[in-house]
Amino acid sequence: MKVGLLNVRIVNDWRVKRLKAGLDVNSARTYLTAFKGLFKWAVEEGHLPRSLLAKLKIPEKTPQKTKKAYLESEEVDKILKHLQEKCPDLYDYFVFMINTGVRIEKALTLEWSQIQMLRHKVYIPREKNKTNTERSFKINDAVMVVLHRLDESRAFDPYVFARYNKTTLIHKFGEGTKKVWGVRVTPHVCRKTWAKNLLRGKPIVGQDGKIYWVKVSQQVVARL
Q1: Cα separation, 54 vs 22, whole angstroms
Q2: What is the dihedral of CA 215, 218, 219, 220, to 10 degrees?
Q3: d(CA 121, CA 208)
Q4: For the chain, what are the domain ranges?
Q5: How far apart (Å, rounded) are the C-alpha atoms in residues 154 and 92?
Q6: Does domain 73-223 have CATH number 3.40.50.1370?
Q7: Which residues lie below 8 Å from residue 13, measured CB to CB, with a gap of 6+?
Q8: 32 — phi, psi (to 5°)?
Q9: Is the dihedral of CA 152, 107, 189, 187 positive or negative?
Q10: What SS3 string covers the chain?
Q11: What is the pLDDT along the chain (224 residues), one digit of tens a residue?
């Protein structure tokens, strides 16, 4: 269709058709806003004499289901079971994230050269750390089981979690959580869950490998 033939009725018909096909209401709203903004820009730049979508009404944003800020123990068990059955590669990533609290990018760029198996330790060089400082941390038995399995099956790829890029990972993780809870959740919830466990005084692995019951402040968690 030529741009000059586009009008409000056609755009609204398209919106209804996409909603019936399963498009999220707020996603459709975003598309309409972009369409209208594009024509407004074209008028301001002198490419069109007037906006063909000037009378297009943008619907109000629909409240979404409450997003999960962190996961409870039973929720972790559910998603672990689902991922282990449906997506083993994602299961390994989730176990690592939920037990270490590292950021998504840091986990995806984790190289085997950074892991000291005998010392149960992960080393993060300053160029991969947000604070531009070197950092290392101990890993527990759950993570070690995953790493040993991945180490046995890896070829020559230097990265531990080499199967997914960030976009694919977020999408597949969201699909898994939607099937389990009915709510799409991003992998960042793993870091928040780990931090919440710290604030609650849940046991974690200390820098010397011992198990500690700790309770720290929000400011400390934000810096980790």
Answers
A1: 27
A2: 30
A3: 10
A4: 1-64, 73-223
A5: 13
A6: no
A7: none
A8: -60, -40
A9: negative
A10: CCHHHCCHHHHHHHHHHHHHCCCCHHHHHHHHHHHHHHHHHHHHCCCCCCCCCCCCCCCCCCCCCCCCCCCCHHHHHHHHHHHHHHCHHHHHHHHHHHHHCCCHHHHHCCEHHHEECCCCEEEECHHHCCCCCCEEEECCHHHHHHHHHHHHHCCCCCECCCCCCHHHHHHHHHHHHHHHHCCCCCCHHHHHHHHHHHHHCCEEECCCCCEEECCCCHHHHHHC
A11: 566 667 888 888 888 888 887 777 888 888 888 888 888 888 898 888 888 788 888 887 766 555 667 777 788 888 888 888 888 878 888 888 888 888 888 888 889 999 998 988 888 888 877 777 888 888 888 888 889 888 887 767 888 887 778 888 888 888 888 887 777 788 888 888 877 777 666 554 444 444 443 343 444 444 44
Residue type, 186: T
The one-letter amino acid code at 139 reads: I
Residue indicated by tokens 């400011």: 219
**Is this prediction's pTM over 0.70?**
no
Q: Which residue has the tokens 């063909």?
A: 52
The one-letter code for the residue type at 142 is A
